[in-house]
Amino acid sequence: MGTRQRATLSKETTVIRKFGKVVLWTLFLIALPMVAGAEDGSGGDGKWGYALGAGLAIGLAGLGCGIGQGITAGNTTAGIARNPGASGTMFTSFILGMVLIESIAIYGLVIAFMLQGKI
Question: What residue spans define the domains of the chain?
Fold first, then answer.
């Protein structure tokens, strides 16, 4: 195994370890309030699941839409740069794609509001 391969493996293992630490700390910070609430008897109402679901619904929907819109905008820009004559057709498809991507965020918002209403 050469020096270059060791450096690549070293970087990959470092990234994996950092990601593992982030996941473990996140789980710890999520579980800590549940343990504290269970100790005094106030954590048994089950309402925290609705709040967590609402936050995850809007957060993941926003994340997915941001990634999708970025990829769509980048690919449309690259396509128009390669073929300026087709910009009208590409722009129409681009706007339609952006609307459909944004509807996912709206669905996430509606689900978050529905879950928030149960709290």
Answer: 1-42, 45-119
Higher pLDDT, residue 20 or 72: 72
Owner of token pair 């020096």: 3
56-105 residue pLDDT tens: 888 888 888 999 999 999 999 999 899 888 888 888 999 999 999 999 88
Backbone phi, psi, residue 83, to 5°:
-140, 85
CA atoms of 108 and 3, how far apart (whole Å) = 47
CATH class (in words) of the domain with range 45-119: mainly alpha
Q: How far is CA 58 from CA 62, 88, 98, in A?
A: 6, 33, 18
Length in residues, the chain: 119
**Using CA atoms, how far apart are residues 51 and 34, in angstroms rounded to an integer?**
13
Q: Which of 63, 65, 92, 64 is nearest to 79 (CA)?
A: 92
